[in-house]
From TrEMBL:
Domain of life of the organism encoding this protein: Bacteria
A Pfam entry, by short name: Hist_deacetyl
Segments forming domain Histone deacetylase: 18-289
Matches recorded under InterPro entries: HDAC_classIV (IPR044150), HDACs (IPR000286), His_deacetylse_dom (IPR023801), His_deacetylse_dom_sf (IPR037138), Ureohydrolase_dom_sf (IPR023696)
Family, per entry: Belongs to the histone deacetylase family.
Protein name (Swiss-Prot/TrEMBL): Histone deacetylase
Length: 300
């Protein structure tokens, strides 16, 4: 069964002024339920993640200052959100959503989070709407508690997964692959195991050519036991923060390529939503919904 992490805290705990396009966290499950792609039993509401699993990834001093709301004004500005107890709780719930989705992926082949993909969070700081790094936390859980020896992160958000790259820079058991717009945030890039920077305006054909060149080869060379897929839809031409030129159909094909390859290689995969900032919320919801529709079609 397809299991998807979702709770209304994903959207409702955000500060006023940050609700759009974050309304997608409510609109997406509503759309999927309405059209019959999923039913209520596909959704699960995660609890906050216990701190011990956060500390497998994040610096203890950073976590203490974050949880006690003691970040500096400069640190808070970098995150893009006003710091609050509700915001931290939201982040900790999202972390467990991805971890629990990972456990479901071990059982069913795939697990998904309506939120997550917080790839700009570093070991000791947050950036770009990310306070903690859900992909890194879940990957470290597999390494430490499940005995995994090789994990592949496929980050296809329009922005480089700089935090994830930093966290795993000295961890050979995790291979980080980021395909992103080269001239976009973050302006200082970290070094992933494989970075594929794309030119502004890259269209469907050029994007998919690059993906189809790199991903099958990585699966053969890296030989991962598990995949984390950051499926941001800020690759769309309509995205306010993106700079690429993809259509909704092209974005759907991107997801089909990733999920089909994981399925063909019998690789469990956890999907985190990532970014999406198109001016029309309908574009964001439709592009994200395609990821979940494909998962249901390909796996169940």
């Amino acid at each position: 069964m397809l299991k998807i992490a979702w709770t209304d805290i994903f959207a409702h705990s955000l500060p006023e002024g940050h609700r759009f396009p974050m309304a997608k966290y409510d609109l997406l499950p509503e759309q999927l339920l309405y059209e019959g792609t999923i039913s209520a039993e596909n959704l699960f509401a995660p609890d906050p993640l216990p701190a011990q699993y956060i500390l497998d990834t994040h610096d203890a001093a950073y976590w203490r200052r974050l949880s006690e709301l003691q970040l500096t004004a400069a640190e808070i500005r970098k995150t893009g959100f006003p710091l609050s107890e509700e915001l931290v709780r939201r982040e900790v719930v999202i972390m467990n959503g991805t971890l629990q989705a990972t456990l479901f992926a071990l059982e069913f082949g795939i697990g998904m989070n309506i939120a997550g993909g917080t790839h700009h969070a570093f070991t000791d700081r947050g950036e770009g709407f990310c306070l903690l790094n859900d992909i890194a936390i879940a990957a470290n859980y597999l390494l430490k508690h499940k005995g995994f020896q090789k994990i592949l992160v496929v980050d296809l958000d329009v922005h480089q997964g700089n935090g994830t790259a930093q966290i795993f820079a000295q961890e050979p058991r995790v291979f980080t692959f980021s395909m992103h717009c080269g001239h976009n945030y973050p302006f200082h890039k970290e070094r992933s195991d494989l970075d594929v920077p794309l030119a502004a305006g890259t269209d469907d054909k050029a994007y998919l050519r690059q993906l189809n060149h790199h991903l099958p080869r990585l699966l053969d060379e890296v030989q991962p036991e598990f995949v984390f897929f950051q499926s941001g839809v800020d690759v769309l031409a309509t995205d306010k923060l993106g700079k690429l030129g993809m259509t909704i159909a092209g974005c759907k094909e991107r997801d089909r390529v990733v999920l089909s390859l994981c399925r063909q290689h019998h690789l469990p995969v956890t999907v985190s939503m990532g970014g999406g900032y198109s001016k029309q919320i309908a574009h964001i919801v439709e592009a994200h919904a395609n990821t979940f529709r494909l998962a249901q079609h390909l796996y169940f």
